[in-house]
Amino acid sequence: MLNRRHIRIKVMQSMYAFKGTESDNLLKEQKFLLHSLDSMYDLYLAQLALFTELHKKSKDYNEKIKNKLVKTEADKNLNYKFQENQLLHLISSNTMLQEAIANSKLNYWHLDFEYVDILFKEILKSELYRDYCIDEDSSFKKDKHFVIDIFTDIIAPNEKLFDFFEDKKLTWVDDMPVVNTAILRILRKLKLTSPETALLPDLYKDDEDLEFAKELFQKTFLNNTKFAEEISTKTTNWDSERLASIDGLLLKMAICEFQKFPSIPTKVTINEYLEIAKEYSTPKSSLFINGILDKIVKEYQADNIHLKSGRGLM
After folding, report:
1. Contact 119/56 with Cβ under 8 angstroms?
2. Which residues are within 8 A (CB) of 314 and not within 5 positions of it... i.e. 6 or more apart?
3. Which residues in the chain land under pLDDT 70?
4. How far apart, in whole angstroms, are the C-alpha atoms of residue 54 and residue 88?
5. CA-closest candidate to residue 248, choices 16, 25, 14, 43
6. DSSP helix/strand/coil, 197
7. 4 and 209 in contact (C-beta within 8 Å)?
């Protein structure tokens, strides 16, 4: 689910929130970082719990209309496609998934049912729903496309839902694009015959990514003063406040990768931190960071130090 850029962002956020020194409690701060990374999985489970509640809502809605004493023409021609959607049924009936949601206490929707109601109403009045209902094709493929479409066009962009998740956990604001992308990728791959574990992906691609998160945090943390001194020799004409901000932290993390991660290409490191700077810092930050990192890399090359190793490295 996680990619390396998001790991870098999480390390940056943890370092920035802490603003400590090498003498402070490294293990405590690393635990905070790992908890922040793990919370992404909680957001994933909470969103799948929302799918389950929307599916339940469709059943309750149909049952309520069936029991009406006075029915309109529309009531008499009740459509059951939402209720019988095979992908939603797959999610709702996945024992392992529902146990994971229950064990993590992430089904907020029983108490915060108004968000389910808001989204359900938005779905019912959408053209997506209308077109889905009149389509006579009831295949799993069509059901899956419908769920993906309502997630993309109605659920994910909903501002009230965004505010709800932000209130639950502030870090989820930055996690949502990555988690939403992961949800779409998983849904697109799902088949009726998929194992139950298909809806429970690993948070990290492999053990190397988890180790990368720990090591990037540790090595930046432990070499904070050393990296700051190296940066200061290249930034005599820059505002000191810029170096105390996110820009300075991104520079330290990039230098850490230059020096402590020989298998990561220099160009990859620079590009990653430039993209992060564009999203999290000032409009001029990427220009500033690129200039400093370029100067540092040229010095390393001239002195033949901190060389990269491995297949395809530059």
Report:
1. no
2. 265, 266, 267, 308
3. 19-24, 71, 73-77, 237-244, 310-314
4. 9
5. 16
6. helix
7. yes
Cβ atoms of 253 and 276 within 8 Å: the answer is: no
Predicted structure pTM score: 0.86
Residue type, 58: S
* Exposure letters 259-283 (e unless 16+ CB within 10 A, then b): bbbeebbbeebbebbbebbeebbee
> What confidence tens digit (pLDDT) does each residue in 237-276 have?
665 565 558 999 999 999 999 999 999 999 999 999 999 9
Q: What is the chain's mean pLDDT, rounded?
A: 90
Residue with tokens 């190793």: 309
Q: Tell me how crowded residue 247 is: count the other CB atoms within 10 A of its CB.
A: 26
The secondary structure of 239-295, three-state, reads CHHHHHCHHHHHHHHHHHHHHHCCCCCHHHHHHHHHHHHHHHCCCCHHHHHHHHHHH
Q: What is the pLDDT of residue 305?
A: 93
Crossing angle of helices 172-189/4-18, nearest 10°? 160
CA–CA gap between residue 16 and residue 162 (Å, rounded): 24
Quickly list H helices, the chain: 4-18, 26-66, 73-76, 86-92, 95-103, 113-124, 127-134, 140-150, 159-168, 172-189, 207-222, 224-232, 240-244, 246-260, 266-280, 285-303
Coil, strand or helix at 309: coil
Q: How many CB atoms lie within 10 A of CB 210?
A: 17
Residue whose C-alpha is closest to residue 49's, from 13, 12, 100, 114: 100
Q: What phi, psi does 144 have (nearest 5°)?
A: -65, -45
